[in-house]
């Protein structure tokens, strides 16, 4: 099969204002914002059969999962279906992956439950705000921010979420009530109240009539307005990238961001709660041979038909049945093999993974933030402690493996002083900088001081292969060595 999207690459060179304006209004630019224009003209009749089969299969999978995930979010079950059809229509026009299906997911439902408190009005408002934030991020081309979320953080979060969601359904299977939502209390009270296990009557939560202003609702959302939009995009793009690699095509992170954001904005007008890409349904979509995003239209139609004709029957679905659907959906998310892979490839990756995994049992947003912070600190440590390979060839040859920036200056200074200037007698050094592609002002000042110290001790400090210094810096260093 041909690649779904053939996106235009970057153009190098200068152009006049008129040329740039013409480029912005060109058909290729329109294709970039509406990827359907890329594949629709090439659409084949043979693809229609595959898209219909895939859309119907995913639709039949979506209906029970959507009902179950609404339960995870603490909302009436029909809100799962309200959330499940808009993504199929919007993503057909705006998505860059043939496989991804947007809709309610276990993780997003768990996150929403933490902030909406089972209130449908708040859930719909949160959807609108999340979509607005995601769309604004897409228009500002902020998709690159997702590159700073490491794989161990993603895996730690998804594994913890799977455990939390799966165990959270045990109370429904056993028919237990008044079990706290906080994970550790939930574990304690579930086992404590096992003797109270009884059969699943449905209960209805009615509004108490209290009037709450828009500002108060947004204030109550708090960190949810950062966590939910970001995690929604992160989950969907991670899935899209995985299937794009498997099926040999590419996706555009900003365009995916735009598609998800607009889906949530439009979904809020049909009482949806926030949605994102579903791994399970995307896998079903891919395995049934979907050829284009048009399969999402069929899925959306199946959900709409279910809403139109099957809603009365949904009232009689036992909570225990929905709980079983959820547990079966999240069990594969607990990927214990990834721990072994982290151990074999890079043991330090277990640190952000375990941080995210463990903190997510306290609060899911704490797990995400904690994992990102730990990953960031590890990244900064590598910047501050670049690898320096030292060889003795009469003079010391020190090879740097990366750029030099201000956090690394003290470390470089210490290594040079210890290995060369504090030796008896002092040693000359050749600093091999073939791999150095960045140098900042703090490093230059430090190098000046080091050159002075080497000169005072009657030994040399020679730079080999350094290509990044500007002329004025080179001149300054040359004056010091003369």
UniProtKB/TrEMBL annotation:
<feature type="transmembrane region" description="Helical">
    <location>
        <begin position="322"/>
        <end position="344"/>
    </location>
</feature>
<keyword id="KW-1133">Transmembrane helix</keyword>
<dbReference type="Pfam" id="PF00916">
    <property type="entry name" value="Sulfate_transp"/>
</dbReference>
<feature type="transmembrane region" description="Helical">
    <location>
        <begin position="124"/>
        <end position="146"/>
    </location>
</feature>
<dbReference type="Pfam" id="PF01740">
    <property type="entry name" value="STAS"/>
</dbReference>
<protein>
    <submittedName>
        <fullName>Solute carrier family 26 member 11</fullName>
    </submittedName>
</protein>
<feature type="transmembrane region" description="Helical">
    <location>
        <begin position="364"/>
        <end position="384"/>
    </location>
</feature>
<dbReference type="InterPro" id="IPR011547">
    <property type="entry name" value="SLC26A/SulP_dom"/>
</dbReference>
<feature type="transmembrane region" description="Helical">
    <location>
        <begin position="221"/>
        <end position="244"/>
    </location>
</feature>
<feature type="transmembrane region" description="Helical">
    <location>
        <begin position="153"/>
        <end position="170"/>
    </location>
</feature>
<dbReference type="GO" id="GO:0016020">
    <property type="term" value="C:membrane"/>
</dbReference>
<feature type="transmembrane region" description="Helical">
    <location>
        <begin position="295"/>
        <end position="315"/>
    </location>
</feature>
<feature type="domain" description="STAS">
    <location>
        <begin position="394"/>
        <end position="467"/>
    </location>
</feature>
<feature type="transmembrane region" description="Helical">
    <location>
        <begin position="256"/>
        <end position="275"/>
    </location>
</feature>
<feature type="transmembrane region" description="Helical">
    <location>
        <begin position="76"/>
        <end position="94"/>
    </location>
</feature>
<dbReference type="GO" id="GO:0008271">
    <property type="term" value="F:secondary active sulfate transmembrane transporter activity"/>
</dbReference>
<dbReference type="InterPro" id="IPR001902">
    <property type="entry name" value="SLC26A/SulP_fam"/>
</dbReference>
<keyword id="KW-0472">Membrane</keyword>
<dbReference type="InterPro" id="IPR018045">
    <property type="entry name" value="S04_transporter_CS"/>
</dbReference>
<keyword id="KW-0812">Transmembrane</keyword>
<feature type="transmembrane region" description="Helical">
    <location>
        <begin position="52"/>
        <end position="70"/>
    </location>
</feature>
<dbReference type="InterPro" id="IPR002645">
    <property type="entry name" value="STAS_dom"/>
</dbReference>
<dbReference type="InterPro" id="IPR036513">
    <property type="entry name" value="STAS_dom_sf"/>
</dbReference>
